[in-house]
């Protein structure tokens, strides 16, 4: 009986296949696009001349996208620069913890990016916001997180320091592009149901400002792999109980479409600077 590869060996296989399919031996930066962010991907290469796109399922260990607003595609994008070209690996979908595929599947894209050579990763998501001054369609930098899934992607007794998980350097870099950017602490619930008003009250009590169903496990895996992490949330709605309105995934996607220009401009200007 053949043993299954370890999560790290599976990522190595996916990175090797990625290099074969794209003709790019090494990528430099990774980007994971969350719910509502898909329209912003076009700003990274508006003409498509520098982009190679493939199905994520062409790579070992990836499953088809299971959530509306995620395309199931992976793009290799050449970023021309004065000091030479760099290559961005963009995942236009992610596997969520609530899909039941296991934590290894959730962070497989991150580990593949690390195996492909990426030294930095930008993790984006659509989320609920707790600050009254935030409005739907507003991007917010993640300064820290609280992981309420009760799980970790790290295999074995590997003790990884998360003190400065979300790079202050990269947050400051973002503010050189958009000085108005606010920041907050992101709280991941398991999902797929939205939070109750009482749970949002708990988030306030423990110091959270943003709530969603992704990102924290990926960030931990990225740190384990030695990557610098930038997290950006798109506030797609006010969190449960704040506005009195019911929550719905269509609202998340609509907020993303409405904010696509601002998000695309932000990514298009920040990513080449990393």
From TrEMBL:
Residues 50-271 form the Nucleoside phosphorylase domain. Keywords: Glycosyltransferase, Transferase. It comes from the Bacteria. Coiled coil: none annotated. The keyword Glycosyltransferase applies. InterPro entries: Nucleoside_phosphorylase_d, Nucleoside_phosphorylase_sf, PUNP, Purine_phosphorylase, Purine_phosphorylase-2_CS. Pathway: Purine metabolism; purine nucleoside salvage. It catalyses: a purine 2'-deoxy-D-ribonucleoside + phosphate = a purine nucleobase + 2-deoxy-alpha-D-ribose 1-phosphate. Its EC number is 2.4.2.1. One of its GO terms (molecular function) is purine-nucleoside phosphorylase activity. It holds the Pfam family PNP_UDP_1. CDD domains: PNP-EcPNPII_like. The purine nucleoside phosphorylases catalyze the phosphorolytic breakdown of the N-glycosidic bond in the beta-(deoxy)ribonucleoside molecules, with the formation of the corresponding free purine bases and pentose-1-phosphate. Cleaves guanosine, inosine, 2'-deoxyguanosine and 2'-deoxyinosine. Homotrimer. PANTHER family: METHYLTHIOADENOSINE/PURINE NUCLEOSIDE PHOSPHORYLASE, PURINE NUCLEOSIDE PHOSPHORYLASE-RELATED. Belongs to the PNP/MTAP phosphorylase family. This is Purine nucleoside phosphorylase. It comes from Nocardioides vastitatis. The lineage of its organism: Bacteria, Bacillati, Actinomycetota, Actinomycetes, Propionibacteriales.
């Amino acid at each position: 009986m053949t043993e299954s590869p370890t999560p790290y060996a599976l990522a190595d296989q996916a990175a090797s296949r990625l290099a074969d399919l794209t003709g790019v031996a090494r990528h430099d930066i990774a980007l994971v696009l969350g719910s509502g962010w898909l329209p912003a991907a076009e700003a990274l290469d508006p003409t498509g001349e520098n982009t190679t796109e493939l199905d994520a399922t062409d790579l070992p260990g990836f499953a088809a996208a299971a959530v509306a607003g995620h395309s199931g595609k992976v793009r290799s994008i050449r970023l021309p620069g004065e000091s030479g070209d760099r290559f961005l690996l963009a995942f236009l979908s992610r596997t969520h913890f609530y899909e039941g595929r296991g934590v290894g599947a959730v962070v497989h894209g991150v580990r593949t990016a690390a195996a492909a050579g990426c030294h930095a990763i930008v993790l984006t998501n659509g989320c609920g916001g707790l600050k009254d001054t935030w409005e739907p369609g507003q991007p917010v930098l993640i300064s820290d997180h609280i992981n309420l899934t009760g799980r970790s992607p790290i295999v074995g007794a590997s003790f990884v320091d998360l003190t400065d998980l979300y790079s202050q350097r990269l947050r400051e870099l973002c503010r050189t592009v958009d000085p108005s950017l606010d920041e907050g602490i992101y709280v991941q619930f398991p999902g797929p149901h939205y939070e109750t008003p009482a749970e949002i009250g708990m988030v306030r009590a423990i110091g959270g400002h943003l709530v969603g169903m992704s990102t924290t496990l990926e960030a931990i895996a990225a740190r384990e792999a030695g990557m610098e992490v930038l997290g950006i949330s798109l506030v797609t709605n006010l969190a449960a109980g704040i506005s009195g309105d019911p929550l719905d995934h269509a609202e998340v996607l609509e907020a993303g479409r409405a904010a696509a220009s601002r998000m695309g401009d932000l990514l298009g200007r920040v990513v080449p600077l990393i």
